């Protein structure tokens, strides 16, 4: 049967070799970032670690920005995979309404799936601090992510996970009637153009994201080390309180 009759043409040997070499370059760049930090990324050092010349590396990534874009997109994807894995690990133990995971807190209450997702996010960040710094640390000088490029798409996929878990089971009418401080007309219009959520829900999502991410950043950069081994418990308490507050703001019977 001719190749492609079923609609799929297998990659050629050249394409497979290129994909393998690309993965090896990204892996080497990640190791370099882990050892020296994002700001010290050097194409020459990455090429040297692979036994290739910089000119050969340019066949796969024409410049530093192209390599950085691929690295950032991959880092977002790896972080999103860690969050999805945390959710999938508890998926078989969810309750009938699928709003809580099988894990339980110190008080015996089941842990909401949004909190499980946040904890997966936190664990990945503190395990990979240098890569976390690549996407959420100080902006790299002379680098600008391409508009609507792979990094933007990766961020949206990450956001979609938390959006789903935060508002699971809520109707558009409920989200539109969420109790938030009054939004200015200009902010309302701007949020309305960002996506599928009503502006009050978008405001709540951004607030929740900032709360969660802020705590993780403080821990990754060592600002909460005085809490010692209790940082995970503090984080869980904060996430559960935040989720409770947001759910109280969403009416069960919107007007």
Can you tell me about this structure?
The chain is mainly alpha-helical and 255 residues long. The protein folds into 2 domains: 12-62, Arc Repressor Mutant, subunit A (Orthogonal Bundle); 72-249, Tetracycline Repressor, domain 2 (Orthogonal Bundle), CATH 1.10.357. 62% of the residues lie in helices and 3% in strands. It is built from 11 helices and 2 strands. It has helices at residues 13-36, 43-49, 54-57, 64-91, 113-127, 129-136, 150-167, 172-176, 185-192, 199-220, 231-249, and strands at residues 100-104, 110-112. The protein has a two-stranded antiparallel sheet. A hairpin with a 5-residue loop joins strand 1 (100-104) and strand 2 (110-112). Helix 5 (113-127) runs antiparallel to helix 7 (150-167).
Characterize this entry briefly.
The protein is mainly alpha-helical and 255 residues long. Helix content is 62%, strand content 3%.
What descriptive keywords fit this protein?
mainly alpha, Arc Repressor Mutant, subunit A, Tetracycline Repressor, domain 2, 2 domains, 11 helices, 62% helix
Strand and helix layout:
Blueprint: H1 13-36, H2 43-49, H3 54-57, H4 64-91, E1 100-104, E2 110-112, H5 113-127, H6 129-136, H7 150-167, H8 172-176, H9 185-192, H10 199-220, H11 231-249
Antiparallel strand pairs: 1-2
């Amino acid at each position: 049967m001719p190749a492609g009759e079923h609609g799929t043409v297998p990659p050629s040997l050249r394409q497979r070799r290129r994909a393998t070499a690309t993965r090896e370059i990204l892996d080497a760049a990640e190791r370099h970032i882990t050892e020296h930090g994002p700001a010290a990324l050097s194409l020459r050092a990455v090429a040297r670690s692979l036994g290739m010349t910089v000119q050969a590396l340019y066949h796969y990534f024409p410049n530093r920005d192209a390599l950085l874009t691929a690295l950032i997109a991959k880092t977002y994807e790896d972080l999103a995979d860690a969050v999805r894995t945390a959710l999938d690990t508890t998926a078989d133990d969810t309750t009938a309404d699928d709003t809580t995971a099988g894990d339980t807190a110190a008080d015996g209450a089941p842990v909401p799936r949004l909190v499980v997702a946040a904890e997966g996010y936190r664990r990945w960040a503190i395990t990979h601090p240098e890569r976390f710094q690549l996407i959420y640390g100080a902006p790299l000088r002379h680098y600008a992510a391409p508009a609507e490029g792979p990094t933007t798409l990766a961020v949206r996929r990450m956001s979609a996970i938390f959006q789903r878990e935060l508002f699971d089971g809520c109707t558009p009418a409920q989200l539109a009637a969420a109790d938030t401080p009054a939004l200015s007309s200009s902010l309302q219009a701007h949020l309305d153009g960002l996506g599928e959520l009503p502006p009050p829900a978008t405001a709540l999502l951004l607030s929740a994201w900032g709360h969660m991410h802020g705590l993780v950043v403080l821990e990754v950069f060592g600002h909460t080390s005085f809490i010692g081994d209790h940082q995970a418990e503090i984080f869980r308490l904060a996430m559960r309180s935040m989720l409770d507050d947001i759910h109280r703001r969403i009416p069960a019977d919107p007007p």
